[in-house]
Prior knowledge:
Layout: H1 2-20, H2 22-42, H3 47-50, H4 54-74, H5 77-83, H6 86-91, H7 97-125, H8 132-141, H9 143-157, H10 163-180, H11 192-200, H12 202-214, H13 221-224, H14 229-256
Helix pairs in contact: 1-7, 2-4, 2-7, 4-7, 4-9, 4-12, 7-9, 7-14, 8-12, 9-12, 9-14, 12-14
Amino acid sequence: MRELNAIFTIALRDFTKLIRDRVRLLMSLVFPLIFIGIFGGSFQSISKQLGFDPLPFVFTGVFAQVLFQSTASGIISLIEDRENDFSQEIFVSPISRYTIIFGKILGETLVSYTQVIAVVVMSIIFGVSLSPSTILVLLVAGLVPALFGGAFGTLVLANLGSQRSANQLFPFLIFPQFFLSGIFTPIKELPPILLVFSRLAPMTYAVDFIRSIFYLGKPEYSKIVVFDPLTDFAIMAILFVIFLTSGTYLFVKNERNR
């Protein structure tokens, strides 16, 4: 019970910080409009050549990307806490180190859901047909890519010493995945080199997992989905454990060596 209380307390702290940061909250609502409105709308003219409606395709990609990226990049707050010596105060408390890290990931997951709700609203406005049951299923399934993104962010940021380093490195690791993971274009058939990089990009499995659920049973499934939902889930589950355990170990090690 003590560990659960610690997880929820840490998570609530990060969510409260978002609510108080009006600029960040506003930007989280603007980006869905840009991605879905501009990219989805620009592909409408070539929908016949694609063989599927590009708006739902872009919607599912942005949905997964927002959950993965927002949670991953939100872990930068660990470095902010380190610079403010707040992390040391947390780490001397009698709770598991994994509890602390998971609490941070859960908090950033809540933050990412604030943004993904905006994605859903914008998609409906732009004409994506979404039933209440579909929205509910996607929101539940979205926990997987969100937590996966948090574990990825933990591993990446564990060895970084400052927010400046994190802000410089993180876009370099995230932006290429926008194209390699198939957020805006299908990735079933790619040149060999790009195919390898695509399968190495963690975001690929987050995007494909959401798409496999959204398009399950639909005629476009074979044209769009790379792996089945269980395969995507299994890959993310394995990588989640690796990222979380390695990232937590490295972060705690660096805290002790300060």
